Structures are given as structure tokens and as C-alpha cells.
Amino acid sequence: MTRSFAGGKSWYDIWNLGFISKNIIMDSNNGPDERYIVPAVDQACRILFCLAGADSSHMSLIGIAAGVGINKSKAFSILRTLQKFGVVQRNVEGKGYSLGPGLIGLSRRFLDNLSAPGLAEPFLEALARKTGSTAALGLIAGKNVFVASKHEGGRAIVVTMRVGNRFPLSWGCHGKAIAAFLPDKDLEVMLKGEKLYFHGEPARFSRARLLDDIARCRREWFAEDLEETVPGLNAVAAPVLGPNEYPVGYIVLLGLVSAEAARELGPLVAAAGKALSRRLGASIDTRLNRDVM
Predict the structure, then answer these.
(1) Which helix (H) or strand (E) holds 248?
(2) Strand 144-151 and strand 134-141: pairing?
(3) pLDDT tens, position by position, 192-218
(4) Which of the residues 8, 16, 197, 290 has the least number of beta carbons within 10 Å of its own beta carbon?
């Protein structure tokens, strides 16, 4: 079973772990022995779990201070300390905070038993077996995605990719699938990028066309790439959502023989994306109802 990529697991695995864990944290007043509770450490831990349960990809200093119940000066000092060790990071525009990659090293052993690649394996295997094509899981890491796991079909000739390969976040069908389930404000930030690869080369990008693709993906839960990014390559991708129904990655089926095959197999990929999202803690029914409204 392939589990590693680009030097380790995506911080979204850590984010998922934090979301699960925050629900079992004891209130500091209910601890076994308050004599041994260090207030600064307690507050730092609460900040980490606050970030893990955020509704968006990052939180402001004011939001963090309010969520934890401490003043902004104290929150700022703790955040700067956590940044030093890489367990918290500033977002690319410097306007908010999110969990950082330093958590990977702290949690790698536990995540061997609780990871998106591991949970995705049976879905990838089933897709590859049913279609004879290559199924892969990609996870978001900043402005890129990484291939975290894959399973190749049984055909004599298959299209494949190496685990660890990196692609732009907006690349082809996986870019459309991710964009379709971003909150509106995060989608607008993404669309302000200098180079967008939704339709292949950036010069071919069409905002109007993408919005049509997004509307369709929200209805059907999958997006297509019909020889747009690579001539002769057809692919279908479905989003994978984590806690709070925020995209953490995608499942893609590639090497399909025709546009008709992509359309026919799209629902299979969508079903796999939904199933994995549920395993990661997403409330799919809530998200579907929200999109319909």
C-alpha cells in the first residue's frame, strides 16, 4: 500500500486529526489534577484545536483570540511561538493563520493508521478494477496538489503517474472539482491567480466556461478533462471533502478511452469521492442541500 508523498502526509491529514480530536478534549476545569496544568501550554493547545475546527482555510488573530477566550496580545505571542516550530503558519497573504507542516512529524506514527491515502485505498482499487484505468488520490498542499496514492487498472497499456508528483491546484478536472466546493471567498482568491490551468494552458482559461463547469460539478459531483490539459488524455475527478465540508483533495480516474467513457464513468468517481469524504468526517447530505438551495 502506498502511503507517502512529497516527504510526508498532507497537513490536511493533520487538520482532519485535529477536527476529530477537538471533540474529545476535556475542559481544563475537568482535568484529573489541575496542579499540573500549565496555562500557556493549555492556551497553545486550544489555539491548535481552534484552527483545526475553523470553517475556512485560515483564521484571523481576532477570531482566534475570541475562539480561545484570551486577549489578542497573548494569542499573538503564542502564535508566533507556534510558528517558530512550524505547527502554525501564516497564509500566503499574511492575513490569517492555519495549521502548519510541523505537525506532520509529531503525528506521523499515529497517522499511519489514520490517513486519507489509507482510507482511499479500497475506493481506488475498486475504481481501477471496474474500469481498467488508473485511479489516484491527490491531496491539497498550499497552491499545489500531490499524488498521495494510486491504483492501476489491468489493461495492457495504462496511463500512470508517480506518487509524489505535484500539479498546480487549478490543473484540469481536479482543479474544477476542488474549485466547485470552495467557499465563494476562497474561490475568488483562487481565481485571482496569475496562471490558471483549468482548461490547459493559462491562455485558454475562460471564467465564464469555468463557472459553467463549477455549476455542473456541484450538481453531479464530478468534473471532466477531455483532452484539455494533455492531448489524447481524458480524465474525470471528484472532490474529497474533510471536516466542515472543505475540499482536502480529489479522486481522479485517468486514461479513459473517450469523452463518452468519461461521462459514463463520472458517477462512479463521484460515488467514491462522496464515500471517502464521509469517512473523513464530511457531512455530504448537508453540503448537497446547501448547494441545491
Answers:
(1) strand 247-256
(2) antiparallel
(3) 988 998 998 899 999 999 999 999 999
(4) 290
User: What domains are defined for the chain?
Assistant: 11-110 (1.10.10.10), 115-292 (3.30.450.40)
| Helix/strand/coil (H/E/C) assignment for every residue in 20-40 | HHHCCCCCHHHCCCHHHCCHH
Alpha-carbon distances of 41 from 28, 37, 45, 260, rounded to whole Å: 11, 8, 6, 57
Residues 110, 125: Cα–Cα separation, whole Å: 24
Q: Are 151 and 128 in contact (CB under 8 A)?
A: yes
268: helix, coil or strand? helix
- Strands in 77-233 per DSSP E: 88-90, 97-99, 134-141, 144-151, 166-168, 223-226
Q: How far apart are CA 57 and CA 244, in angstroms?
A: 10
235: CB partners within 8 A, 6+ apart: 172, 173, 224, 225, 252, 253, 254, 255, 256, 262
- Cα gap 195→206, rounded to integer Å: 12
